[in-house]
Amino acid sequence: MAFEGLSEKLNAAFRRLRGKGRVTESDVREAMREVRLALLDADVSYGVVKDFVAKVTERAVGADVLESLTPAQQIIKIVNEELTELMGGGNEKIAMASKPPTVIMMVGLQGAGKTTNGAKLAGYLKNSMGKRPLLVACDVYRPAAITQLQVVGEQIGIPVFALGQVNPVQIAQHAIRYARENGFDTILLDTAGRLHIDEQLMNELKNIKSAVTPNEILLVVDAMTGQDAVSAASAFDEALGIDGVVLTKLDGDARGGAALSIRAATGKPIKFIGTGEKLDMLELFHPDRMASRILGMGDVLSLIERAEQSYDEKKAAEIEEKLRKNRFTLADYMDQMNQLRKMGDLGQMAAMFPGQLGKQMAGAQIDDKMLSRQEAIVLSMTLKERNNPSLLDASRKRRIAAGCGQEVADVNRLLKQYEMMLQLTKQLSKGKMPLGLGKMPNIGKITGTSKMHGFGRKKRLK
């Protein structure tokens, strides 16, 4: 999980402040020393750390903070505000052309994930913004680059324009004409990369930029390369003039220093972050939400947005109606579990939950195999049995287990989990959180998540 180490160290420093009835300037400076070390350990550049700590210290030693009734909370608020400002202040969206098509040029070093994240962005533009994007294969050097783009394009239902091994400038120009003639309003150019920055690469990118005048140049950088990502961003911006950054593999970097350094080093915003390998795992970057995650305050807004994208509102209304009439069936139970599965890795969502709840969810994952086995059990039942599980006596259970190749114990386990879910969804249906989320105790038992810290045991989440 990104920023895991930084979050723990910052919270340790603030716990010591909270434990003091009165905070002195000396206490503040000691806490800021720990903050400085935590940021450096997170691979944030020294200059950025120095400026950040100086700003926070200057604000935190003021009389209005030290003499307040809650000085520790005031200092955390200042740190939160300065972290937000450090990462750009607010979300910056893609600059769309006043007259379509909008041309977006994806650039970056080889291995950063340009092709995959270009496809992710195309999917985001299609699904979240109602655009009609076209992917364009301008990388004519890397073996199978064109094929890779065609494969990911097919997976997300977005066409790919390719002319083979010809001049990338000509490909880009032809693609724009093709887009205008066929009603595509957004073009994403997947350009070539190199293992390192060189003059030949930059000249080619400059030629494409000059020929098609893109509305947006997005640099794709790998968060796991740390300060190398910051150096690459600076070099590309100096040579090409980038408009923003797509930071990939943020889920695989526990330090996260690149996210805190890029804006300060280049002055260019992080616009999107890649949070996983799946083609829908691309998020708008919100500095304020990320600051809250870093400080262990969670990110409920992003959690709700992810739930809304995955959850079928019509089906939710139907389930609520069934709950009111006490008609929640085993088929409904499986629908609920599949909706939860669509939301993605629970472990990745851990940082969106505040405080101890997020820590308990760290490393959590839904056991897809167990859900598949449970689905097989439900499908082995008759319609009457699914609608009325109380009919399932020992004889019926043996028949169902034999029909799907499972044990009777597996059938009993499913029925027990169904009863748990029935009680939980009755509680949740009265609120606005999507069913399957919220105050769900023992999620590990319900979903078969064997790797949950604090889930599936005797602990309950409050």
Task: Please give a structural write-up.
By secondary structure, the protein is α/β, with parallel strands linked by helices. The chain has three domains: 83 residues, SRP54, nucleotide-binding domain (Four Helix Bundle (Hemerythrin (Met), subunit A), Up-down Bundle); 196 residues, 3-Layer(aba) Sandwich (Rossmann fold), CATH 3.40.50.300; 144 residues, Orthogonal Bundle (434 Repressor (Amino-terminal Domain)). Helices cover 55% and strands 8% of the residues. The protein is built from 21 helices and eight strands. The protein has an eight-stranded mixed beta sheet with strand order 3-2-4-1-5-6-7-8, sandwiched between helices. Helix 11 links the parallel strand 6 and strand 7. Helix 1 packs antiparallel against helix 2 and helix 6 packs parallel to helix 7. The longest helix has 21 residues. It is flat and about 75 Å long. It starts with a helix and ends in a 15-residue tail after the last helix.
For this structure, the CATH topology of the largest domain is Rossmann fold
Main beta sheet: strand number and arrangement?
A: 8 strands, mixed
In the predicted model, the low-confidence regions spanning at least 5 consecutive residues are 431-462
- The second-level CATH architecture of the largest domain is 3-Layer(aba) Sandwich
Helix-strand layout with pairing:
Blueprint: H1 4-18, H2 25-41, H3 46-60, H4 63-66, H5 71-86, E1 102-107, H6 114-129, E2 133-137, H7 145-156, E3 160-161, H8 168-182, E4 186-190, H9 199-212, E5 216-222, H10 227-240, E6 244-248, H11 257-266, E7 270-274, E8 282-284, H12 287-294, H13 300-310, H14 313-324, H15 330-342, H16 355-361, H17 368-379, H18 383-387, H19 394-404, H20 408-428, H21 443-447
Parallel strand pairs: 1-4, 1-5, 2-3, 2-4, 5-6, 6-7
Antiparallel strand pairs: 7-8
Helix pairs in contact: 1-2, 2-3, 3-5, 5-12, 6-7, 8-9, 10-11, 15-17, 17-19, 19-20
